Amino acid sequence: MSGAPTIPLEPVDALHITTLIDNVSDMLLQDQGPAKRAGFGDGDPPQLSAAFLDRPTADVPLAEHGFSALVSVAKGDQEHRLLFDAGITPDGLIGNMRRLSLDAKDIEAIVLSHGHFDHTTGIDGLVRQLGKTNLPVMIHPEFWSQRRVAIPGREPFELPSTSKSALVGAGFEIIEQRQPSFLFQNSLLITGEVDRTTEFEQGFPVHQALRDGEWQPDPLILDDQALIANVRGKGLVILTGCGHSGIVNIVRYARKLTGVDEVYAVLGGFHLSGPVFEPIIPATCEALAAFAPEVVVPAHCTGWRAVHALAATLPDAFIQNSVGTRFEL
């Protein structure tokens, strides 16, 4: 890809993404390509006693409406781990990490894709597990906005927002960036604010933000950001939280930023659920197919109809997500 100067994102040797929180948990899914499943009989899972069972049962990962992933990146003899988003309940994230035998102390940084509470609330349990910590938290400046969803004919629903003073008080190092930024010696790239270039991805029309004391339209949700890696010999891996920027916009922007044409994997929420977004499913599927990704993992807020359309459009690339799945990319 030619044009504007690109950001030198260095190739990494391996990238592992473990789904900690998602809307779906399916313990019967089988391994599929890079997707390694957390099944009932894998390893030595934690056990629970139940009064009406004759033996302990598996303490399996739980699903909730939200998203979180543990990202592990390897380059040379260096390996780093970060948390991408944190789910919707205080204890869902830390509970699933325990169930998956993952240690929160291994987390070196946190990236929050945007300010919606179904991606941030699990920080509560993380802090109770770790105590006061100086972990960097990477966000967009509009992350703190007070917001609501105002559907015509219904009472507006105000979304809980994150307390900046509480995060700072817990010891986190808050890093606010509108522009792209690196983590781990140029191994991972956070997009910052995403360019909006498609005609059909117009944002969330019923979304509002409180500005200057008044509720104002906030359809673009400008704090929405994604994570990018360039896996050596394979191409770009793009991880999204909700994809409010538009999943096609995000992929286009990732290619523009890095100058890398090859798109290897796209994972995360694509926000195509409900009557506002379902009309753009065909255009989204067509545009994603044109990138020819080898792996497509629509999760969280993508929606039933969009997931099935993507599976039909990209049958060889599509992989069903589930809490506990580890993608070895």
Mind explaining what this structure looks like?
It is a single chain. This protein has 329 residues and is α+β, with helices and mostly antiparallel strands. It has one domain: Metallo-beta-lactamase, Chain A (4-Layer Sandwich). The chain is built from 6 helices and 20 strands. It has helices at 92-99, 123-130, 164-169, 247-258, 281-291, 304-313; strands at residues 14-21, 35-36, 47-48, 57-58, 68-75, 78-84, 109-111, 136-139, 147-149, 157-159, 173-176, 181-183, 188-190, 207-211, 214-217, 227-231, 235-240, 263-269, 295-299, 326-328. The chain has an 8-stranded mixed sheet. A 6-stranded mixed sheet has the order 12-13-16-17-18-19, with helices on one face. It has a 4-stranded antiparallel sheet with strand order 10-9-14-15, with no helix packed on it. α1 crosses α2 (123-130) and α5 runs parallel beside α6. The radius of gyration is 19 Å and the shape is globular. The chain starts with 13 loop residues before the first strand and ends with a strand. The model has no long low-confidence stretch (mean pLDDT 95).
Write the layout of secondary structure elements.
Blueprint: E1 14-21, E2 35-36, E3 47-48, E4 57-58, E5 68-75, E6 78-84, H1 92-99, E7 109-111, H2 123-130, E8 136-139, E9 147-149, E10 157-159, H3 164-169, E11 173-176, E12 181-183, E13 188-190, E14 207-211, E15 214-217, E16 227-231, E17 235-240, H4 247-258, E18 263-269, H5 281-291, E19 295-299, H6 304-313, E20 326-328
Parallel strand pairs: 6-7, 7-8, 8-11, 17-18, 18-19
Antiparallel strand pairs: 1-5, 1-20, 2-20, 3-4, 5-6, 9-10, 9-14, 12-13, 13-16, 14-15, 16-17
Helix pairs in contact: 1-2, 5-6
